[in-house]
DNA sequence: AATCGTTATATCTTTGAAAATATAACGATA
DNA sequence: TATCGTTATATTTTCAAAGATATAACGATT
């Protein structure tokens, strides 16, 4: 529409509003898109190392994410076991499932917000 | 409230939803909080180098931001003059003012969204 | 033409984060 | 007790982004 922001851009059709969303605790981010996917893959594979490999993330980083998550929660979201049959593994707790679900819903609302902002930009 | 996400966190009172917002063109971010502040300071000081210094940003980076902005717009947002009285300087165009205003309003709406999400988290 | 502080650009250096590598500890199973 | 693949942790290496530095070009004013 006349008078919109897109009018003053060189490539009006390729424009959109984008963003990122996360949950902070103690002033620092602890639960964004990365940890969500990691938890989901730990649930699927039963292993931190396999989940990390699937995401092409170093085991170290994955382990740090898990550790940080557990530290912020009243009860752990991942139960790791070093040693045992097949060398060990990790399982996620009901709290983790709850977190994942919540984040997914939140992201849907955020996606709507972004779409609305992108639409607004053009009119 | 019982059953909320905050119940399963170690520090429920310090939790909040946070995020970042920007405008993309051609798939890459070109207008976020940094450029906004830079444009505002160029307007105030009449100089890219002074604006950069105020933000403790290298002149190089500031110049790159300005260049990138100008490249994405149908008409430049910053008019630079090398040489002249006092060595030169830069002014911003009405298009720049429009962009700044729009981004400010957008950020206010985003702040409301984040507050609503933070509130939702706790109930 | 000499001066000024700025814009414009190239090049070198730093440095901090990510990745890669290595190694130890673990515990059920056979 | 030997094996397995995992968790747990430290150390080293790599690499790209940021920063620092240097230099040229610019043009109104004097």
Could you explain how this protein is built, in words?
Chain A is an alpha+beta fold and 123 residues long. Chain A has one domain (28-121): Arc Repressor Mutant, subunit A (Orthogonal Bundle). The first copy, chain A, is built from 4 helices and 4 strands; from the N terminus they run E-E-H-H-H-E-E-H. In chain A, the strands form 2 sheets. A two-stranded antiparallel ribbon of chain A has the order 1-2. Chain A has a two-stranded antiparallel sheet with strand order 3-4. In chain A, helix 1 (33-45) crosses helix 4 and helix 2 (48-54) packs across helix 3 (59-72). Chain A binds a DNA duplex (30 and 30 nucleotides) through residues 47-50, 58-61, 63, 67, 80-90.
Radius of gyration of chain A: 19 Å
Task: Estimate the global geometry of chain A from the Cα principal axes.
Answer: elongated
What's the CATH topology name of chain A?
Answer: Arc Repressor Mutant, subunit A
What number is the mean pLDDT of chain A? 92
- Total of domains of chain A: 1
In whole angstroms, the N-to-C terminal distance of chain A is 5 Å
In the predicted model, the low-confidence regions of chain A spanning at least 5 consecutive residues are: none
> What is the chains' assembly state?
homodimer
Which strand order do you get reading across the main beta sheet of chain A? 1-2
Full CATH superfamily name of chain A: Winged helix-like DNA-binding domain superfamily/Winged helix DNA-binding domain
The biggest beta sheet of chain A reads: 2 strands, antiparallel
- Provide the succession of SSEs of chain A: EEHHHEEH
Largest interface: A-B, 36 and 36 residues
Share of helical residues of chain A? 40-55%
Second CATH tier, the architecture of chain A: Orthogonal Bundle
Count of alpha and pi helical runs of chain A? 4
Task: Tell me what portion of residues of chain A adopts beta-strand conformation.
Answer: 15-25%
Q: From the helix content, strand content and strand pairing of chain A, which structural class follows?
A: alpha+beta
CATH top level class name of chain A:
Mainly Alpha
DSSP strand count of chain A = 4
């Amino acid at each position: 529409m006349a008078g919109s922001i897109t009018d003053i851009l060189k490539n009006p059709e390729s424009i959109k509003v984008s963003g990122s969303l996360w949950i902070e605790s103690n002033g620092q981010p602890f639960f964004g898109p990365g940890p969500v996917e990691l938890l989901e893959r730990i649930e699927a594979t039963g292993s931190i190392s396999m989940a990390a490999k699937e995401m092409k993330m170093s085991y170290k980083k994955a382990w740090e994410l898990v550790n940080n998550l557990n530290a912020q929660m009243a009860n752990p979201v991942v139960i790791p076991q070093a040693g045992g049959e097949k060398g060990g593994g990790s399982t996620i707790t009901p709290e983790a499932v709850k977190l994942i679900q919540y984040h997914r819903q939140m992201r849907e609302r955020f996606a709507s917000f972004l779409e609305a902002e992108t639409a607004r930009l053009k009119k």
